[in-house]
Amino acid sequence: SGRKAANELTKARLKVARFLGAHPEEIVFTGSGSEANNLAIQGIARNFQFSIFNFQIKPKTQNPKLHIITTQIEHPSVLEPIKWLEGEGFDVTYLSVDKEGFINPEELQKTLRSETILISVMYANNEIGTIEPINKIGKIIREFRKGLEIRNSKLEIHEKAYPLFHVDACQAAGCLNMNVNNLQADLITFNGSKIGGPRGIGVLYVRRGINLKPFILGGGQEKGLRAGTENLPAILGLAKAIEIMSRNESVKLTKLRDYFIGKLKMTLPEIKINGPVRESRLPNNINISIPKLDSENLLLELDKYGIYAGSGSACTSRAVEPSHVLKAIGVEKKYLSGALRLSMGRQTTKKDLDYVLKVFPKIVSDLKNRYKNN
Question: Catalytic site residue 315?
Answer without folding.
Answer: yes
